[in-house]
Amino acid sequence: MAPPTQFGRDRDYNVDLIPKFAMASGEFVNILYHTDVTRYLEFRQIEGSFVYRDGKISKVPANQQEALMSPLMGLFEKRRAKSFFEFIQNYDFTNPSTQQGVDLNTATMVEVYKKFGLEPGTQDFIGHALALHLDDSYMNQPARDTYERICLYMNSMARYGKSPYIYPLYGLGELPQGFARLSAIYGGTYMLSKPVEEIVYENGKVVGVKSEGEVAKTKAVIGDPSYFPEKVKEVGKVVRIICFLNHPIPNTGDADSVQLVIPQNQVKRKHDIYVAAVSAAHNVCAKDYFVAIVSTIVETDSPEKECEAGLALLGSIQEKFVDIKKIYEPIADGKEDGIFISKSYDSTSHFETTCQDVKSIYKRITGNDLKLEGKVKKMDENAEQ
Questions:
Q1: pTM for this structure?
Q2: Does any domain span residue 280?
Q3: What percent of the chain is predicted at pLDDT more than 90?
Q4: 350: domain CATH number?
Q5: Which family does it belong to (predicted)?
Q6: CB neighbours of 131 closer than 8 A, spacing ≥ 6?
Q7: Does the CA dihedral 176-179-185-186 come out positive or negative?
Q8: In the 8-state DSSP scheme, what is residue 171?
């Protein structure tokens, strides 16, 4: 079936099936910089970061000045939020005089919120739109992780202003292309359009991958769950609804791109709803069109209905596509058989959870933590030393 003519040429579209933004000062950008793959990529900033509260969307405040201007809070709550942000910005783990009697290594976020008297709605946007927690389990855990996440958001905001997120021109498909080019420089070999017919084992340990009668010898295999159904377990489902719009998302100041978080408590759910929107400004769709993707973890037998709160914020939708995928995790760590399996992508519209998985796989394979200090040296540079 031919696509509707009003959308223009199909070659103008580069639509991500799993949308992810990069935090400007986050682990993902550190990995790209460290490997030098940034030479093959060009990024553009996401124009706005928003949160849903009490039926409306508002810009996410990321410091005390923005907290004072934010329509998210009343006058007295703004003062309390300002005090909270000042506490976070001034906190020094080595200087007790900055800690106001709170040790973030042991105190929970429940205790920190209580200390500043923050309302549940304010806790929602701090925990879910700033710290980007997936659910409320963080509330009863040591606050240091949340502190570091908020600092990451603030530092990413400070890098470019407007929002903490960046996104590659022409979409995320540029990332594997960039890594493929980089791999070739380092002596990597790519075999394209080759089916994986069999994983070859000897004495329970992987020794190769068979394709079209040939076996590529190896000591380790890294792959996503789809290749190893017997070695993974299902842990849930994610629903993503890809929408084509002919206008910016309403109430975002006509932003050409946005990240919008709907905290779980605001819509009486167990998981947040994420809305990621990009446009022709990012070379991912035709001029005057926008691509918005609403995603969340499935909780009922009506996944599309669960996204209604996000879809309702988009205004008129020209076309939409619903995609429901199972989420898998590996059963074993891979050290015994040499098969190292990644987790399925979650519903978040940023790369921070994915980076944790990448670092976990790296440590399981090498036994060492992934250190991102400086840039990787090329082979010829190493040879000269």
A1: 0.86
A2: yes
A3: 66
A4: 3.30.519.10
A5: Belongs to the Rab GDI family.
A6: 138, 146, 149, 150, 153
A7: negative
A8: -
How confident is the model over 292-345, as pLDDT tens digits? 999 999 999 999 999 999 999 999 999 999 999 999 999 999 999 999 999 999
In a domain, 385, yes or no: no
Q: Is residue 200 part of a domain?
A: yes
- In this prediction, residue 376 has a pLDDT band, given cuts at 50, 70 and 90, of low
- Statement to judge: residues 152 and 171 lie in one domain: no
> Residue 383's pLDDT band (boundaries 50, 70, 90)?
very low
- Can you tell me the distance from the alpha carbon of 63 to that of 246, in angstroms, rounded to the nearest whole number? 33
How far, in whole angstroms, is CA 229 from its chain's centroid?
25
Same domain, yes or no: 206 and 167? yes
Query: Residue 309 domain-assigned?
Result: yes
Residues 147 and 246 in one domain: no
Beta partners for residue 325, in sequence order: 238
Give phi and psi for 321, each to the nearest 5.
-130, 130
Cβ distance 372 to 31 under 8 Å?
A: yes
Q: How far is CA 40 from CA 20, 59, 170, 278, 378, in A?
A: 18, 32, 12, 21, 15
